[in-house]
Design brief:
Layout: E1 6-10, E2 16-21, E3 28-32, E4 40-43, E5 49-52, H1 54-74
Antiparallel strand pairs: 1-2, 2-3, 4-5
The chain binds zinc ion.
Zinc ion binds next to loops.
Length: about 80
């Protein structure tokens, strides 16, 4: 399996949106982190599928925690 690359987008309430880049066409798929369960399959417009595994979600949550603590330091 190709490594999944993803980013987090935070709104002003610090709600995180997962931004997953399709490994086939580069199109971005967006999904709320809170409503993403382990092994959720994201389907791109091009038909390519990416799976958010537990590993990815834990990495996303760790990243979110560090972003939040950075916000608190800044505030
Ligand atoms: Zn695609």
């Amino acid at each position: 399996m190709k490594p999944l690359s993803f980013d987090l987008d935070l709104d002003k309430h610090l709600n995180a949106t997962l931004v997953v880049a399709c490994t086939a066409c580069g199109h971005e798929m967006r999904r709320h982190l809170k409503s993403t369960a382990p092994d959720t399959v994201l389907r791109c417009d091009c038909g390519h599928e990416a799976t958010m595994t537990t590993h990815h979600l834990l990495a996303a949550q760790r990243r979110l925690a560090s972003i939040k603590s950075a916000y608190q330091v800044a505030a």
